[in-house]
Amino acid sequence: MATITATMVKDLREKTGAGMMDCKAALNEAQGDMETAVDWLRARGLAKAAKKAGRVAAEGLIGLAADAKQAALVEVNSETDFVARNQKFQEMVSAIAAAALKTKGDVDKLASAKYGSGKATVADTIKEMVGAIGENMTLRRAAHLSAAKGVVASYMHNTIAPGLGKIGVIVALESAGNAEQLKSFGRQIAMHIAAANPQAVAVDSLDKAVIERERAVLTEQAKESGKPAPVIEKMVEGRLRKFYEEVVLLAQAFVHDPETTVAKAVADAEKVAGAPIKITGFYRYALGEGIDRPDSDFAAEVAAAASQP
């Protein structure tokens, strides 16, 4: 059996862009022959996947999986929206979401978790899909919520298949109330979160840095009025309350009844469910949010391609 050196692995990695362990496996299979190892990687789509890894993947799908007491969200990105309509890609995202129920929102553990009932990992499966479909894909993030006493409700917006869409929400409600009533109200809250995009459940759970940054901006704005410091302080506090109404879930106007707040809607739901209700947490994933997408001039790209020999 040929001796595989670190230099050989390094050379193959630089030549193909494939992962270190994949390169080592390829060289072992090829008995140390570099060209055969390259072909081995190409045949499995590994070199092809590596070459595409630098491309921006901001499309794809949000995946949702849930059972009676827990739910998970994942975001799996691709380069184009066409891939989101590929059945194999959809099946993969659904399976990854199901696996996320076991890894409790840890994206690193999810990547190394077994995919379905096979031996391949989630990361390996994504890499194989890159080779099969021909686009860069990434497992970007994962979230998990559970409720030992209560429900975890969910909502998927722009659904293209069960549990798959463009905006996914999961929200945990802690309560000893009627399970069916909690489930129904929880879905309403999840829909509200999808539409209103709050940053926190309550004011005391809002990031303190966010509050101080907003306070500083509002203070500078209020100073322009030239009014005394005590008046400025009251102006800032009043404007902060308006800010909370925009970003804090319980302070927001309820999308199902804009005349009331979410906090009031919770109080009304408690009467129907027969027990106090506490919203303990939520996650809202919107596809591609926060990803820098390169500006492109399609006409210029076509012209450039046409000018090439």
Give a verbal description of the structure.
With about 300 residues, the protein is an alpha+beta fold. The chain has three domains: about 5-50, Helicase, Ruva Protein, domain 3 (Orthogonal Bundle); about 60-200 and about 250-285, Tetrahydropterin Synthase, Chain A; about 205-245, GTP Cyclohydrolase I, Chain A, domain 1 (Orthogonal Bundle). Helices cover about 50% and strands about 20% of the residues. It has 13 helices and nine strands. The chain has helices at about 5-15, 20-30, 35-45, 45-50, 80-85, 85-105, 105-110, 120-135, 180-195, 210-225, 230-245, 260-275, 300-305; strands spanning about 60-65, 70-80, 135-145, 150-155, 165, 165-175, 255, 255-260, 280-285. The strands form three sheets. The protein has a four-stranded antiparallel β-sheet with strand order 3-2-1-5. Strands 4-6-9 form a three-stranded antiparallel β-sheet, with helices on one face. A hairpin with a 3-residue loop joins strand 1 (about 60-65) and strand 2. It is elongated, with a radius of gyration of 25 Å. The model has no long low-confidence stretch (mean pLDDT about 85).
Computed Rg: 25 Å
How many runs of DSSP E, i.e. beta strands?
9
Main β-sheet, in a few words?
4 strands, antiparallel
The global form is elongated
Q: Which band does the percent of strand residues land in? A: 15-25%
